[in-house]
Description:
GO terms for molecular function: transmembrane transporter activity. By secondary structure, this protein is mostly helical. The protein contains 17 helices and no strands. The model is unreliable at 199-204 (pLDDT under 50).
Amino acid sequence: MPKPLKIEGMSIFIVVWLGQLVSLLGSSLSNFALDVWVYQQSGSVTQLSFLILFTTLPSVIISPFAGVLVDSWNRRWVMILSDSGAALSTLTLAALLVTGKIQIWHIYLASAVISSFSAFQWPAYSAATTLLVPKKYLGRASGMTHLAYALGQLFSPILGGVLLGIIQLSGIFIVDLGSFVFALTTLLLVRFPHHKVTRHQQINKTSLLTQAIYGFHYLKARSGLLALLLFLASSNFLVGILQVLIYPLILSFASSAQLGTIMSLGGVGMLTGGLLMSTWGSGRQNYINIFFCFMLLNGFSMIVAGFYPSIFMLNIAAFLFFLGLPFISSSCQVIFQKKVAPDVQGRVFSLKNAISGSCLPLAYLVAGPLADRIFEPLMTVNGALAGNIGKLIGTGPGRGIGLMFIVFGTLTMLMTITAYQYAPLRLVEHELPDIVTS
Length: 438
């Protein structure tokens, strides 16, 4: 085993971040390739939706319990074991593919296993960041984390489409395995500060379920944090519905090449937001105000996207929407990192991920029926709303989905304005003391 390097604080975070960046790029590339491969092999949107469900649902279910263990274990070793488990699952898929024995249910199972390991990985990473990074740089560190995610979102479709034709799915698996090895090497080269076990853990040395529930009680006692989490979950539900419908909306009047251009510009927006947050996110910013401002921008972007079938307008909407995501996610993350005690961050962050992510499977399930059975029929040439709203946004294929974007964008803005009136949420940074003092 490599001897740990004698580096501290922000330097350790940068080393770990670099490893996780490479790992995330490899995983994003592999996930994109698997989505394409499953759809090509099955020709079924349902099979693809099942893959998305198996990729998200296990993490949602396991997260509250994983957080308890993250608080009790060495967070560096949690990340090492999580990366190792995900790498082993990818290696198994690669072996099945090479031997010609792979079936779609193998991919479902492997995706569920990888999702389960991610339930440990991300809370450990977030909680470790709080220990490694000085308080004034938490915004910058969170921006860097979301910058890594943005790079994966931007480059995985571009590289995945090219590499699938050159090195095939088996070659992409090898690239992904190499990224895991790099991430594991960086983790083996560093040491994390030990987090102290305080009364929060001593009180709750009971059953795993009791300790998991403690994360909810911890948030319930801090109404501003609980309100922020519930607001985020509600927003994710609306965004999850539109996430399913963005491709049908664009393809209702544009080509697949134009779809690629719009999504790539969205990736550029996310990359820009991540870069800005990673360079600007230090000092004494009011993160809750940043959160609210960019939530309003996201709602406005949804309205713009649905209002008129225009490539130009969709390019603007995509750029603005994805530009705001790093600011929203980073601001929320920094608030939680500052206000939640380090010894319970694992279970609280896991609960945060579980609650905010639990809305996505429901969103995926209702998106199709809402579009096909309600909104699209309303906006046909002879639909019930053709004579009024149809005169503003047009009628025909895709216009019902466009109306959904307008409605949900408006709801997002109204939710944001309403949430801002709730004092414990608006004043969460002032009323709750900072746990992190360095």
